[in-house]
Design goal:
155 residues; flat; 47% helix
Length: 155
């Protein structure tokens, strides 16, 4: 285990510090320098794209994908104005207006692969209002006895 940490630390130092450790006389090829200019945009796209295009690990391209609609509006504003701050403000406003019912769906229900021995495991849609207080009610039928623990996570 210690060897793994040492190896990971060494790799991290070499990859991140290589730009400082290599003498200034060493020049990257122009093609590599040109490619590295796109690295921040690629990293940001890799972080944001799964949240915009997927829901529950499935492609989600519908009119109910408010994140995607807001991104389309934000891109159009940026192409017109070339102003990043205006693009962000209009994109957030567009998302708020598209999601005008006042709730945001945080998860969608799906059949559970293994419902347990008594077939009592369920998945439920989770929506919360945009206000600061949340209420949650859990109701079980009278003939169902909980077979295990109940966990609730907020992120």
């Amino acid at each position: 285990m210690l060897l793994a940490f040492a190896g990971l630390g060494l790799v991290t130092i070499l990859t991140r510090g290589s730009f400082f450790m290599v003498p200034s006389t060493v020049q990257l090829p122009p093609r590599v320098e040109r490619a590295l200019r796109y690295a921040p945009a690629c990293a940001l796209t890799a972080i944001i794209a799964p949240d915009i295009f997927t829901r529950d690990n499935r492609l989600f391209l519908t009119w109910h994908n408010y994140e995607l609609l807001a991104v389309v509006v934000a891109i159009a504003v940026f192409l017109k104005t070339r102003n990043m701050l205006t693009m962000m403000a209009v994109g957030m406003l567009a998302f708020t207006l598209f999601d005008s019912d006042g709730t945001t769906t945080l998860a969608t229900g799906a059949p559970v692969a293994d419902a347990g021995p008594n077939h009592t495991c369920v998945a439920q849609d989770v929506t919360f209002p945009h206000t600061g207080q949340f209420s949650l009610s859990v109701v079980a039928a009278a003939n169902i006895m909980p077979a295990g623990d109940f966990y609730l996570r907020f992120y």
